[in-house]
Known about the structure:
By secondary structure, this protein is mainly alpha-helical. About 65% of the residues lie in helices and about 5% in strands. The strands form 3 sheets. The protein has a two-stranded antiparallel sheet.
Amino acid sequence: MNILRRGRLSVEPDEDIANFTSSMEADKRIFNADIEVDRAHVIMLKEQGIISAHNCSAILSALEKIKKEGISALDTSYEDVHIALEARLIGLVGEDTGGRMHSARSRNDEVAACIRLTLRGELIDLMEEVHDLVATLLGKASEHYETLMPGYTHTQHAQPTTLAHHFLAHANAYLRDIERLRGAYERTNQNPLGAAAFASTGFPINRERTTELLGFDSALPNSMDAVSARDFMIESLGCYACLMTNLSRFAEELILWSSSEFEFIELDDRYASTSSIMPQKKNPDIAELTRAKTGTVDGALMAVLTICKALPYSYNRDLQEATPHLWRATDATRAAVRMAEGMVRTAKIKKENMESASDKGFMTATELADTIVRVTGIPFRTAHHIVGACAKAGTTPTLQDMDEFSLGILHERLSDRGLSEENIREALDPMGNIRRRNVRGGPAPEETGRQAAAMKKKLADTGKEIGQIRKKLGEASEKLEKVYHQYS
Ligand code: ARG
């Protein structure tokens, strides 16, 4: 007989209804967390004198057995892992003992705790994966401070830059993604236990103790909020969506750069597929899927937002429907980050092609206009007009061309205002353009070197912080393990 339904309900749901209701499949993801939550809760109950030492010990030993058996040994006719686990516990130690575990709690605070515990682990792992991606980008950038490449706006040749500048641009975005994830972690790692259904409990519980044993940073201050809130989930999904959008832009570039039109890089064979009909094809499928998974993650975010929209407080079963979207998006995001890291690490850079492409499209036009301004003192807008007219004519401008256009526009020769052939030659040198852009944030090799060094320091701090979080969680789990051995 179903331990949950036997009191209030008299008819069992048919298979179709049971399947509709069950979260057992998604609960595989929180099985281990559920065992931890049960342990911490039972230890706290014993310490508060709510259950006896004898019952505590019997429950803890049975939980160990259930953990070893795994979720697949549980009775899947139950609607979720929490009640199936309790049923198994009662099967092992009898109701007089096992039936005491659920004192002072509800599945509402229990499931929230399980999701938060599991998600925090995913967030740390993801932060570390993004950290590794940034480290790889910094390493690659350091080989290409002087590698000229076209910089684009509107996918049109715009101004020369370097591959280092381009890689560092992406790396900056991922550093911000790590910061965002860190914020999401902070708001995820909070203890809802003790909230019970929503109104807390009349038992003399100790929420600080479960907080400590489970490595939460603090207990959520309001019990109704504790079971109702899923904004930690939405925030994490928001971070994923942002990260994936950043990644998709990089993936798109890797795809473009691999094409015959660009030929800037060749992805490693591991990160390529071929065609079933066209024997010559080497396709950037991994980058394409990275781009596509952004849609999967955005969909998950939208699903959870919509599930939670206008949901009255406190717990509603709707919330169960949100959780699988979180895990699907978590998996997609973490994998995409690892793929991006691997693609960058192993790609062959076709430096010569990037350099030769930098000669096309008159990308030095801005510098030429700037040079005219600096040398002749005419307004930038007028120089822009003159150089634009030269560009329209389609030839690489000489001093004579410039004078002709300026006569028409300015009624003056630029050479009479001091512009020389030498000035023009210098302005038209792409590497000269780069070296001149030695201001904060610019592509000059010295400056990108400085940027990379600053980012490396930031990354090292991030790495340290991830280490500290892991250490704190490790200590909590050791403490829980120790108390568990003491009491079981
Ligand atoms: N499986 C449920 C979920 O994921 C657990 C909580 C069920 N609580 C309840 N009152 N029905 O949300």
